[in-house]
Amino acid sequence: xxxxxxxxxxxxxxxxxxxxxxxxxxxxxxxxxxxxxxxxxxxxxxxxxxxxxxxxxxxxxxxxxxxxxxxxxxxxxxxxxxxxxxxxxxxxxxxxxxxxxxxxxxxxxxxxxxxxxxxxxxxxxxxxxxxxxxxxxxxxxxxxxxxxxxxxxxxxxxxxxxxxxxxxxxxxxxxxxxxxxxxxxxxxxxxxxxxxxxxxxxxxxxxxxxxxxxxxxxxxxxxxxxxxxxxxxxxxxxxxxxxxxxxxxxxxxxxxxxxxxxxxxxxxxxxxxxxxxxxxxxxxxxxxxxxxxxxxxxxxxxxxxxxxxxxxxxxxxxxxxxxxxxxxxxxxxxxxxxxxxxxxxxxxxxxxxxxxxxxxxxxxxxxxxxxxxxxxxxxxxxxxxxxxxxxxxxxxxxxxxxxxxxxxxxxxxxxxxxxxxxxxxxxxxxxxxxxxxxxxxxxxxxxxxxxxxxxxxxxxxxxxxxxxxxxxxxxxxxxxxxxxxxxxxxxxxxxxxxxxxxxxxxxxxxxxxxxxxxxxxxxxxxxxxxxxxxxxxxxxxxxxxxxxxxxxxxxxxxxxxxxxxxxxxxxxxxxxxxxxxxxxxxxxxxxxxxxxxxxxxxxxxxxxxxxxxxxxxxxxxxxxxxxxxxxxxxxxxxxxxxxxxxxxxxxxxxxxxxxxxxxxxxxxxxxxxxxxxxxxxxxxxxxxxxxxxxxxxxxxxxxxxxxxxxxxxxxxxxxxxxxxxxxxxxxxxxxxxxxxxxxxxxxxxxxxxxxxxxxxxxxxxxxxxxxxxxxxxxxxxxxxxxxxxxxxxxxxxxxxxxxxxxxxxxxxxxxxxxxxxxxx
Length: 824
Fold this sequence. Notes:
Helices cover 19% and strands 28% of the residues.
């Protein structure tokens, strides 16, 4: 069955678009796949598999998920040429699929059954070998509705060692960047008509600070973590929390595009603002900020912003810009926040604009700032670590403090109006749990005027359905159901014990947020701890700056972690010096490597096998140790450690068994992770209780920091039992803890279940599961290290990242004995 490009050619004018025309080609030795991030009218991901000389393609609106319980809609579209696999660029306005396209992932795929038969019958099973997506997957065709023009399929991750729960990891959010857009591109030439003195000075500073980089086609914003109270200590700056929509502006010469936080292109909806941004005279940049409409007092008015979009009158929108991750052909994400903002202030000052403004910050007591914001009727304040890099994910370096409880809810239905009220009585609200099920969260019937009632009623009428959208029918609720496609922002007083909200007030509809992403927002009791900032001592005199242990280190000056200002050569030197301590924990164990070519704030990915990149010194284990999988890796020498760090390896994770008995673990691990609402004192208490439980069972245990947020309790075992038996036993321990102390422990994984309680992770004991090795650095701000401890040190421990790659050697020098000397 030969592929066809007829439909692909019909839809495009190749005299206008830069997309490749292509031809049907002969298949190579390995079948390619590509996933392209496509910001058209709505952001989606194009999933393409090579078959019969073309790329068979599906449009996946929400992108792939590593959770086998999450089924992603995938719409079968026209085949694309093989040459499309390398396409990144902007499809011009007026062309089919107009918008930006970038290569989000690429690699090869292996059919597990006849792919032609599978495509014809509607079930494709295959294994992926990509930079981000790996393991076993399925595409399954589902029944086509009458109003659907194209075939609907489902993209499903199968359960294997590459799968991960959606509640703990969203690969689309965690790894948003292109796999082709790497640092090192040449900066663009400056526009001849934008040469003010301030701008020239700003661009020169950018050239000195940021790495030269091609302007990426998309950018996922850094998100803030909700906390209950301001952080202690210095090093934070504070801004107003604007009551509006998050918007990122991409400026590439005359091409200005405005994107929502989810990557949807809103440029056509805000043409006046796009024109204002274009007048800034910036040649190349990404700007990050919030759009608002101001009231008569100069305060953001969310309802006025909503109204501006409802009536298509957006000329009064003001764009408050607070960050600039890229500028003038340079990637500034690794530079400290205060330096990025100083540069941004100069750039905006060179072209003052009524509708594009710099978001000022304050160095003042956050409690007083919050009180003042609340008194003015503002939503709250945002706190940011002054030295933090820009990371495209939710980060503890940015925090939000709110004046009132307020979040988004999915609308699942409505009640009838009473008395003289028109339209509807109240909206039925819902939130998703960790498994993606929608649960009823209460009603909201206040906050509406006649205009809002009419506008919302009109939208509800278009999505009416007979199917109840909630996982369980709300008790005592009589209403009409709608498809869960609308998102409402609601202010309220508190949550009840039944999961309902009290005294809600409707604020407006949110068209910039995906309904499937709406979950209950829980605040951390305390602001996250600041990472250690101690720097390494200068290199010994005479040591070559770009060489460690006789191996040349490429790009030694590249910053790996902006928080500690650690460079690549700092990390390589760390692993060379720590070799005698870490190698005993690595020897004879399969290892998974966490690589970060762009540092801790960039694209991170696991490498468990040798099929994507060979690292000198790293040993390939016999494939018989894990039948059906590529050869696993072992890091057993100093040369291998240095070679791994030179190839941008940051973390090393190991199996619980050795090659002497690969199917029988010689240790059992309990990972106590610090989740939302949990203080460090509670982590320490929970760890001590876990030890007491193990003591009662007659099991000797050992303690180490994770280097991240929690602690690891390790129990040595005689390798007699299989992985299933050990995992079942560890689960029984955790279940007993949760039943004995339900206020502190919980036996179910998932972010929703862990709010205010600790899940002692026993899943680390499954076959093929890995845990950060003792003395491994962690790919987090500060480059904390997983450090073995004496149990007597637990009470005095200050954090899970108490030691980093610069300070752990001081600890080792002061130790009189190995804390784990009795480990057998």
